[in-house]
Amino acid sequence: MTPRFLTALPVYNEQSHLAEVLATVRQFAQDILVVDDGSTDATPELLRREPDIHIVTHSPNRGYGAALKSAFDFSVKHNYDVLVTIDCDGQHEPRLIPELVARVFEDAARPADIVSGSRYLQIFEGDSRPPEERRRINQSITELVNERLHLHLSDTFCGFKAYRVDALLRLNVTEFGYAMPLQLWVQAVQAGFRIIEHPVPLIYLDESRSFGGLLDDANRRLAYYREVLDRELTAGRECASPALCPAASN
After folding, report:
1. Which of 29, 107, 158, 183 holds its CA 20 to 30 A away from the CA of 100?
2. Three-class DSSP category at 58
3. CB proximity list for 109: less than 8 A, separation 6 or greater
4. What is the pLDDT of residues 66-118, one digit of tens each?
5. Please, what is the end-to-end C-alpha distance for the chain in angstroms?
6. Strand 114-118 to 54-58 pairing
7. How many domains does the structure of the chain reveal?
8. 103 lies in a domain?
9. Which CATH number is 148's domain given?
10. pTM of the model
């Protein structure tokens, strides 16, 4: 049976990409959710013109992780089998949505809980050269996550993912900023998730894109990511409830 899946796009001030990205996503996904995280440009008006999509609006802006948490909650509430998350900045290719969904259940006896896009598993024709500081930070944090969680990831921060919705019930996302993926990886390992990566093209259209405030400084951003990872690992060790913090495995 074909899994019922939802494709969710977290957006914040995406007026320049929204219409084009949604038009492409519609070719590969029937059920679409847009989480507008407090946009102050023309994004809300553009969304009002889009038929047959679900919209969740945050007011004011709450953060990238909060937008993903809203997508998690929506997919659980509406009983989807799979949630696909894809960014709305044109840096992911919607044609790959069906591939990520299919990989969740390719092993019927042991479905994947997270299929995580990786921009570094495979070289695609036309791949971009990533901004050096972003590549450096991603590589540094990916190595740290692998070392501390005994994973074998190649791309910690890719937002193009497919989640088995039943597995989302075992997560407790409280990190609402850009470091949310680090909390995700720690909790996924503690919950015994089966995690696989899927190659996706490396596309950068706007190298000057802001993370907001102090996080535009690469060293501050790296320190923030390390702080969240350390905090989540400490919280996991201190958790006394086996139901919430099962033994780590992969």
Report:
1. 183
2. strand
3. none
4. 999 999 999 999 999 999 999 998 889 999 999 999 999 999 999 999 999 99
5. 26
6. unpaired
7. 1
8. yes
9. 3.90.550.10
10. 0.88
